Amino acid sequence: MGLVVQKYGGSSVADAERIKRVAERIVATRRDGHDVVVVVSAMGDTTDELIDLAKQIVPAPAGREFDMLLTAGERISMALLAMAIESMGYRAESFTGSQAGVLTTSTHGKARIVNITPGRVVHAIEEGKVAIVAGFQGVSPTTKDITTLGRGGSDTTAVALAAALDADVCEIYTDVDGVYTADPRVAPDARLLDTITYEEMLELAAAGAKILHLRSVEYGRRYNVPIRVRSSYSKKPGTLVVGSMEDLPVEQAIISGVAHDRSEAKITVVGVPDKPGQAAKIFQRLAAAEINLDMIVQNISTRGTGHTDVTFTLPVSDGKLGLSVLRKLQDEVGFEDLLYNDNIGKLSLVGAGMRSEPGVSARFFAALADAGVNVEMISTSEIRISVVLRGDELDAGVRAVLDAFELGSAEEEAVVYGGTGR
């Protein structure tokens, strides 16, 4: 007997039949004697469709009303799932994020969870009900407004709830069988991992792997919540995210996987005066606009000019805002020009074993060179190598690196059961 938090993504509840199948899985978990709390995303591509609809009305919707619109998707799926469970003879009760006590910052579109007070959820569990919570959303205790957590926020809702409820495990159900060594949509021969550490999963998520949201893994590591990634379409056990890389056995594989990301753009600030404080002004102004930067490279000052170039990547959704912020700063900093490129992709190699294994970088860059892929930027951490490539070379780069590190599987091809990848 234990408490299980289950999260079902949009493809798992995309239509009435899939909602019924999810209800059957939840009921089966209850029959096994477990209490169940469920977090659901919006059905299928509902969120994308609502975004498209809003932008037919106004190109840049106001944050408050935009969040009110987008949270409707999860409310639909949570209510329908509760109905399906009730039809099978089990009691269920659905809650919006605010009703479930998900308290967030006040930033619309990318709020962060600051606390969870799940009193109503606990009461539902004590009454023997399945508690169903709308993912991706919460409420700001300061403004009292509904907020959204950004794309992938339902994962964060689920793991944060699991931590607040002291659940035994948080199961993330998706449209693939677990965490693979690469995205099976790009590399069908990618290999399914049995386990992966929090640190490795954090690096993969930060590098663009969409299987788990970055903040959900951060929550899991902070509160030691075991996270199991599995498919709602099969009975396979999936991948368990747990433990620290410090506890890995000696025979642990060097590399865990390859991640890629198409959602970034690159800005180069040309001709920045090479003197203390100029870069700080640039990054402080971007931070004030709540723009998260990823890779940053500063060139060596050009001899005789006293100027340098600063290049960084940022979410493509923040590209126009970033350019606008920097243009207003041009006279103050005295840089010459701005270059913008959104036809890029980020490719990352992740593995705890690379800390002590020589030759990983050499093999990585040789694989890209042999595939004719040019590298534009490089960034590393203790267990990750990331590069920026041309967008149209990204898929070839993923497959080349996967082959070079023998991360594929000859036994069976990975299956993507649903979802459109939007």
**Regions with pLDDT < 50 over 5+ consecutive residues?**
none
* Secondary-structure-derived class: alpha/beta
The first-to-last residue Cα distance is: 38 Å
> What's the helix count?
12
Portion of residues in beta strands equals 15-25%
Give the proportion of residues in helices: 25-40%
Main pleated sheet: 8 strands, mixed
List keywords for this structure.
alpha/beta; 12 helices; eight-stranded mixed β-sheet; 33% helix; 20 strands; single chain; four-stranded antiparallel β-sheet; globular; 422 residues; 24% strand
Notes on the protein architecture:
Helix content is 33%, strand content 24%. The chain has 422 residues and is of the alpha/beta class. The chain has an 8-stranded mixed sheet with strand order 3-6-2-1-9-11-12-10, with helices on both faces. Strand 4 (102-104) and strand 5 (113-116) form a beta hairpin. Helix 7 packs antiparallel against helix 8, helix 9 runs antiparallel to helix 10 (319-333) and helix 11 crosses helix 12 (394-404). It is globular and about 80 Å long.
